[in-house]
From TrEMBL:
<feature type="region of interest" description="Disordered">
    <location>
        <begin position="29"/>
        <end position="78"/>
    </location>
</feature>
<feature type="domain" description="Solute-binding protein family 3/N-terminal">
    <location>
        <begin position="89"/>
        <end position="329"/>
    </location>
</feature>
<dbReference type="InterPro" id="IPR023346">
    <property type="entry name" value="Lysozyme-like_dom_sf"/>
</dbReference>
<keyword id="KW-0998">Cell outer membrane</keyword>
<keyword id="KW-0472">Membrane</keyword>
<dbReference type="InterPro" id="IPR008258">
    <property type="entry name" value="Transglycosylase_SLT_dom_1"/>
</dbReference>
<protein>
    <submittedName>
        <fullName>Lytic transglycosylase F</fullName>
    </submittedName>
</protein>
<dbReference type="Pfam" id="PF01464">
    <property type="entry name" value="SLT"/>
</dbReference>
<dbReference type="InterPro" id="IPR001638">
    <property type="entry name" value="Solute-binding_3/MltF_N"/>
</dbReference>
<feature type="compositionally biased region" description="Low complexity">
    <location>
        <begin position="29"/>
        <end position="51"/>
    </location>
</feature>
<keyword id="KW-0732">Signal</keyword>
<comment type="similarity">
    <text>Belongs to the bacterial solute-binding protein 3 family.</text>
</comment>
<dbReference type="Pfam" id="PF00497">
    <property type="entry name" value="SBP_bac_3"/>
</dbReference>
<feature type="signal peptide">
    <location>
        <begin position="1"/>
        <end position="27"/>
    </location>
</feature>
């Protein structure tokens, strides 16, 4: 039995669970309407992929975030909290997995997800930011890439249960401890030989990630063994994409004899991994503490994070609520096994692909918009009469520029929504001075607030010295002043969750590949 079934890339990407609803101001302008910003309209939708795409990021069409450095969360920078406030985003690096940061009912949830939301509130408290606030962006990645990404400026905070160790303290600064004291212990399975003490591991092989604190603990054991003249423990490196849950699963199945893990982790799988033996008498590291990590010389960020954790870490009322919700009372087996949350998108995926290809719009982006609008529920109706998955007004869908009147059925509804986005993009924003990403973002704004209003907002942005061809930090600011929160939140939600879950998919694929490479899936998927 495979407790971590591999999801299709598109399914993982699109389990966004975006919040909020579309405005009901959809309207089609007359064909003679023109934008005062630019009268040059490109005649072709075809574009070449950016040559600057990061090698480690899979291509995803012209909306590929790595090819759009103006997108929040994609610009690489280092610096303290004041720099992050200028960029209006604090990027939280974590690993994807049940309980910590995972997908449930189509949305990102878990301890990190909830702490990120609460940190966002903390950062914006008592700040006169109005509708333009600093937001948090959760970026999942392989565990062995967390510290390199932080140092490289691709994230600002690591929240992933990192144990404070002297080796890591040479590279990063840690917050105050976020956890209570933890022990690193051995768990054994049906293939393990008899072992009474840690020294019995002499000459044996232990499988662990190179980047884990467990490696340091095993090396400390080797130092003691060497002093006693005993053979050392051989360390077999495991892929960094694997998590402790994968190793625990392997031990339970007898694929490896044992693993080193934090003492609370086997408790999560009690009653699921029935062949696992928890050896809390075999302790490698006693009283370890986990903390959030950040780049050195970040006193403003450290002070803010420390103040936040004092009120929200394990042992506080809120921290204990999260631990109960996602550790003690969390149904780990159900969340690892459950595919039902993805069924709705499974049923509609082919329609987003079909009409995304027809109108040269990345279908993942279009489906993310569908999540924002209705959670992909065709039965949804708004108070103003908007219908279905894409929450279109029947008058909009039946207009000659869309011409798809029967939007009460799901396929024509999705068809009409994507066609209307295509119309907005090509009619008002298909300018060679506007990037593909900003064409899509501005079209989202027009979908929500109406194209006439978007024309006026761009003109006002130009008058005020902002770039009318860029949504984030430019037209977005004018929209916040003139409209308020709704349109700003609408565009921001769709894009930042789309960005986050592309990364989720990337890491889940890496993890699946790593599991296959070491034989977990082949052995357990039977």
């Amino acid at each position: 039995m495979n407790l971590f079934p591999t999801k299709k890339l598109s399914i993982v990407l699109l389990a966004l669970g975006l919040l909020g609803a579309c405005g009901d101001s959809q309207s089609l302008e007359s064909e003679t309407a023109t934008s005062p910003v630019s009268s040059t309209v490109a005649s072709s939708k075809t574009s070449e992929a950016s040559a600057n795409t990061q090698a480690e990021t899979p291509p995803a069409g012209d909306l590929n975030p790595a090819a759009n450095p103006e997108a929040p969360g994609q610009r690489r920078w280092t610096g303290d909290l004041d720099v992050m406030e200028e960029h209006r985003v604090v990027r939280i690096l974590t690993v994807y997995g049940p309980g910590r940061f995972h997908l449930e009912e189509g949305r990102g949830v878990g301890i990190v997800a909830e702490m990120a939301t609460r940190l966002e509130e903390h950062l914006n408290a008592n700040q006169d930011r109005k509708h333009i606030k600093v937001f948090t962006l959760v970026i999942p990645m392989a565990r062995d890439q967390l510290i390199p990404a932080l140092l490289d400026g691709r994230g600002d905070i690591i929240s992933a249960g990192l144990t404070i160790t002297p080796e890591r303290e040479e590279l990063v600064d840690f917050s105050i401890p976020a956890s209570k004291p933890l022990n690193e212990i051995l768990v054994t399975g049906p293939s393990a030989p008899k072992i009474d003490r840690l020294e019995d591991l002499s000459g044996q092989t232990v499988y662990l990630r190179e980047s884990s604190s467990y490696r340091e603990s095993v090396e400390a054991l080797n130092t003691r063994l060497e002093a006693q003249g005993l053979p050392l423990v051989e360390i077999e490196a495991m892929p960094g994409s694997l998590e402790d849950d994968d190793l625990i699963e392997m031990v339970n199945a007898g694929l490896i004899p044992w693993a080193v893990v934090d003492d609370y982790k086997p408790q999560m799988w009690e009653g699921v991994f029935t062949d696992l033996r928890v050896r809390d008498d075999l302790v490698f590291r006693k009283g370890g503490r986990t903390a959030w990590a950040m780049r050195k010389d970040s006193p403003l960020l450290k002070a803010s994070v420390d103040a936040f954790l004092k009120k929200n870490r394990a042992g506080t009322l809120y921290g204990n609520i999260l631990i109960n919700r996602y550790v003690r009372d969390f149904d780990w087996a159900a969340n690892a096994l459950g595919d039902e949350d993805y069924q709705r998108f499974n049923d509609l995926q082919h329609l987003f692909q079909k009409y995304g290809e027809l109108y040269e719009m990345e279908y993942l982006f279009a489906a993310a918009q569908g999540y924002q609008e209705s959670r992909l529920d065709q039965s949804v109706r708004s108070h103003a009469g908007a219908v279905g998955v894409m929450q279109l007004l029947p008058t909009t869908a039946s207009d000659k520029s869309v011409g798809i009147p029967d939007i009460h059925e799901v396929e024509p509804n999705i068809h009409a929504g994507i066609k209307y986005m295509d119309y907005l993009r090509d009619r008002y924003f298909n300018d060679p001075d506007v990037t593909e990403l900003n064409q899509a973002l501005l079209a989202l704004g027009a979908y929500n607030a109406g194209p006439s209003r978007m024309i006026r907002l761009r003109a006002k942005a130009k008058e005020r010295g902002y770039d009318p061809n860029v949504w984030f930090d430019n037209v977005e600011l004018i929209a916040a002043e003139d409209i308020g929160r709704e349109t700003v939140q609408y565009v921001s939600n769709i894009y930042r969750y789309y960005l986050t879950y592309r990364m989720v998919a990337k890491q889940e694929l890496k993890r699946a590949e790593a599991r296959r490479a070491i034989g977990i899936s082949d052995a357990l998927d039977q």
